[in-house]
Amino acid sequence: MHRIVALALPDLVAFDLSVPAQIFGHRAERDRYEFTVCAQRPGPVPTTTGFAIEATAGLKALAGADTVVVPGFYPLDAPPEPVLRALRSTTARLVSVCTGAFALAAAGVLDGRAATTHWQHTDELATRFPKIDVRPDVLYVDEGPVLTSAGIAAAIDLCLYVYRADHGAERAARVARRMVVAPHRSGGQAQFVDRPLPEGNRLSDTCAWAVRRLAEPITVDDLSRHAGYAPRTFARHFRAETGMTPLRWLTAQRLLEARRLLEATEHGIDEIARRCGLGTAANLRLHLAREAATTPSAYRTAFRGSTIR
Questions:
Q1: 3-state secondary structure the chain
Q2: Minimal CA–CA distance to 120: which of 131, 136, 142, 133?
Q3: Strand partners, 67
Q4: Which of 63, 67, 134, 305 can bridge 126 by disulfide, Cβ–Cβ 3.0-4.6 Å?
Q5: What is the pLDDT of residues 140-186, one digit of tens each?
Q6: What is the mean pLDDT of residues 44-60?
Q7: How confident is the model at residue 188 (pLDDT cuts 50, 70, 90)?
C-alpha cells in the first residue's frame, strides 16, 4: 500500500487537491493507494472557491508518507515554519501542483533543481528563488524525488505520469479513460496559452480581417493599411493593445489555426501549413517547436490519439 498525503495549505485551490484525490484516492485505487489530507493542524482548511475542506491529519502524517502532494494555494507567502520543517525532513517523493511549488521553494527543496508552476507565476518564482531553474513553458518537470506541475489541467498530466511510473502505462490508461482525459501529454509540452484578439476598436476589426485570411500572404504593411495607420503608428498601438508585435501576433494566429487543424481534421502537414499561411511543413515544424515545444505529430497524437500522415 502506497501512502499518499496531500498537504492542505490555506487558502487551498480546491481543484488542485481534487485531481490527486480523483486519481489516487478514488475507490477503484484503494488496493494500491492510501490517500490522506493533512494540514498544519487537523480540521477545516479554507479554499479559494468559498468552501472549506476537512483535513483529517496533522503534519505528523508527512513523516509516514511515501508521496507528499502539495496543491496550489494563495496568497503565495511562505507557509509557517513547522510546515517548512516537515517538508524538509520528509523522505517521501514530493509532488507540487500549480502554485504548490512556492511551498516547496520556501522549504528549500527545489534549490538546484528544475521546476515549474502556473505560467502566470513563473517570473515571480524565478525572482524570489534564484537557486531554482524555473521552466516557464512546460507542463511538468520530473527531478527524481521532486516533481512540479504547471497550473490547473497540468495537474492531471503530472498525476497520471506519477501513476504510470508506479503501475505502468496500461493501468494509467485505464485511469485516464475513467477520467475522460488524454492518457499522456509529455512534460516538455508547452503550457498552451492562446493569444487574445483586441476588442472594441479599429485594431479588433483588422485582427478579425486577418484571421479570416490566414492562408493569404498577409504582411504587417497589409495590417496597418487595413487599420488606417502608418506602419510605425500601427505597430505602437498594436503592441500596447496585445503586448506583442504585429508580426508575432500574426504568427501566433497562424499557429493557433495550425493546432486547430491538427486537432479537428485529417489534413497532412503540408496542407495544414498552406491553410494556416506558414507555407511549408518545415516552417510549421520550426514555429511549433519554438512556440509550443512540440512537433505536429506529437501535438496531434496528444490531442487526438492519431498519427499524422
A1: CEEEEEECCCCECHHHHHHHHHHHCCHHHCCCEEEEEECCCCEEEEECCCCEEEECECCHHHHCCCEEEECCECCCCCCCHHHHHHHHHCCCEEEECHHHHHHHHHHCCCCCCEECCCHHHHHHHHHHCCCCEECCCCCEEEECCEEEECCCCHHHHHHHHHHHHHHCHHHHHHHHHHHCCCCCCCCCCCCCCCCCCCCCCHHHHHHHHHHCCCCCCCCHHHHHHHHCCCHHHHHHHHHHHHCCCHHHHHHHHHHHHHHHHHHHCCCCHHHHHHHHCCCCHHHHHHHHHHHHCCCHHHHHHHHHCCCCC
A2: 136
A3: 4, 93
A4: 134
A5: 999 989 999 998 789 999 999 999 889 887 888 889 888 877 665 65
A6: 96
A7: low
Q: Percent of the chain beyond pLDDT 70?
A: 91
Name residue 283's beta-bridge partners: none
Neighbours of 74 (CB within 10 A): 16
C-alpha triplet 183, 189, 191: angle, nearest 5°: 105
pTM for the full predicted model: 0.67
Q: What's at 145, amino acid-wise?
A: P
Number of other CB atoms surrounding residue 203 within 10 Å? 23
Give me the residues paired with residue 179 across strands.
Answer: none
pLDDT given at position 196: 54
Give strand pairing partners of 220: none
218-254 tens-digit pLDDT: 999 999 999 999 999 999 988 887 777 899 889 988 9
The cell for 176 is 485516464
End-to-end CA distance of the chain: 44
User: Which residues are CB-neighbours of 301 under 8 A, at least 6 positions away?
Assistant: 307, 308
Please give the positions annotated as active site. Answer: 98
pLDDT at 165: 87
In this structure, which amino acid lies at residue 205? D
Radius of gyration of the chain (CA): 22
